[in-house]
Design goal:
Largest sheet: 5 strands, parallel
CATH class: Alpha Beta
Structural class: alpha/beta
CATH superfamily: Flavodoxin domain
Radius of gyration: 16 Å
Shape: globular
Oligomer: single chain
């Protein structure tokens, strides 16, 4: 059982996938990983799963078959996920396994996006500096989830400035982000 909700238990199994190209050097991941582990959420870093630019697709598909909820985390790079995430999606979401949605091994699972941005979150509005909401920018991932028969769990986002590591405000950001993820997972059941 998972710990962490108000009653001490998360309602279902969850896999957190860190899509940072170099997760080991990410200050956000460094701060978030102990919180995720304390919640008994399974953890996987895509940067550790790639060997020579390739993924062990059957092993990753088996790992994705287990949880009820999948949290895909990445820093927003030029309004989209890093290339590592796209390569992983292209490799693992194969015909017959991930789609069609009626027979998908991901059918019924929930996908939640966990995003960090360098820009303030309020700048992601149609009339803001970034000209669109995060949900609009990340629509291809929502459509991918739905195409694979998954439930859309939405986006949990935080502004993160990695140059301010060690700052108490950043620890507060990490804690709020993890609380928001737990609330989203709990709401999905």
């Amino acid at each position: 059982m998972h710990k962490g909700c108000s009653d001490g238990v998360l309602p279902s199994s969850t896999l957190f996938i860190a899509g940072n190209p170099d997760a080991d050097s990410s200050a956000f991941i460094h701060d978030l990983q102990p919180i995720i582990h304390a919640l008994d959420i399974d953890w996987m870093a895509l940067s550790d799963e790639s060997s020579g630019g390739n993924f062990n697709v059957p092993a990753l598909q088996e790992k994705l078959s287990q949880p009820t909820n999948i949290v895909l985390h990445f820093p927003l790079y030029w309004y989209s996920p890093p290339a590592l995430v796209k390569h992983w999606l292209d490799s693992v979401l194969t015909p017959g396994w991930a789609f069609p949605s009626t027979t998908s091994r991901l059918r019924g699972k929930s996908l939640i996006l966990s995003i960090t941005t360098g820009a303030p979150l309020d700048s992601f509005q149609p009339d803001g500096a970034n000209g669109a909401t995060l949900e609009a920018l990340l629509l291809p991932l929502k459509r991918t989830a739905l195409y694979c028969g998954m439930k859309w769990g939405g986006v949990v986002a935080s502004q993160w400035n990695g140059s301010d590591t060690g700052n108490a405000a950043l620890s507060t950001t990490t804690k709020r982000h993890s609380d928001d993820l737990v609330a989203r997972i709990t709401a999905l059941g």
